Amino acid sequence: MERSNSSWFGWWRKKAREGQGGGRRRDREKVVVDGTEIRELVEDREAFGMLVDSKFRQLDADGHGMLSVSELRPAVEDIGAALGLPAEGASPNTDHVYAEVVSELTHGTSQGEVSKAEFQEALSDILLGMAAGLKRDPLVILRMDGEDLRDFVAGSRYEPTAAAVFSKVGFGSEEDASSLRQCVLAALQKLTVDHGVPPASDTWVAKNIVEPALQQLPADQLEQQPASRDDLFQQLKKLLCAIADRLQEQPVIVAHTENHYDGSGVKRLLANKFELDKLLDSVWKGLPVEHKNKASKEYLIAALDKMADAASLPYYGAVKEVDAVVDESIKTAGVEEGKAADEAEFKKSLTDILRAIMLRLNDKPVFVSTNIVVHEPLSGSSTLLK
């Protein structure tokens, strides 16, 4: 099973299952998550205090009243998952985010251990930051039970969509020697939640939804070359109907987000000198001493991540297209690797990088749509907001 954000989506899964009362079926099958629940939890001192007590006891394996870095790891992993980052150790470009979370949780301690009060304060800051991000970019939790897919297959959109999909993947010509299986699976990868199809690239969906549906098509035909374009259309339709049947038996919960990065958030930040100066001061003060003494791409990325919410940018490592823009902008700033940088130079470099990011995104905006299958939590897995 793929790593997922299940520990943070438990109650959203429950809401998506139950729906929200009356109204159209489509409206009952989705829940918009805008950070309100997280914010209300943190602001409810009694409820948040009880959560902190419970989680602190759960993480404090040796029971001595302080959390070591190793004991904090389960909480850090859950926070990373909620931010949509790869697992720690999977990518050097995002591992620094985990280091930043650990630094935030252990701030002010000399032995790298955290008291319950420090844990509560740091966790509050992190969750409120997440809530602010969700308010800006809400998350939609979709419950996919096959009904939307059936509507798509039976409606007027099916044939033109199928024609466009097969054209994109290059199938359907007389010279094409691809098997029917290859054709319909390639087409399936191009369909989205807008068509009622859960992410076919997800290994759980492939194993539990797509493969059983494929088994309902004649095995001998699947290995043959499609006889015609109509044959392709009909076989894909049969597969989609079989997938809809599987979804009716076993609905899939999908977390859907859409983000449009055009540099406007960076422009607003740069135009507000008071906010920009205040943020730069905060970032500089929070920068580890070793980074102040030795400039590097790593420390600039860490600093930019601290400014991401204010600039309406994703964390580095979350969106590869934006990562490429950041990389080019850092090169443009001409920061010399390994050279010591004082406060003024640091702030100027960050401002120059932000301005370069703004210009690049304004010239070529990045649109990102993500769909993450929300799996049931693994037995015994750590949870933070369960």
From TrEMBL:
Transmembrane feature ranges: none
EF-hand domain span: 56-82
Sample GO molecular function, one term: calcium ion binding
Protein name: EF-hand domain-containing protein
Organism name: Sorghum bicolor
Lineage, opening ranks: Eukaryota, Viridiplantae, Streptophyta, Embryophyta, Tracheophyta
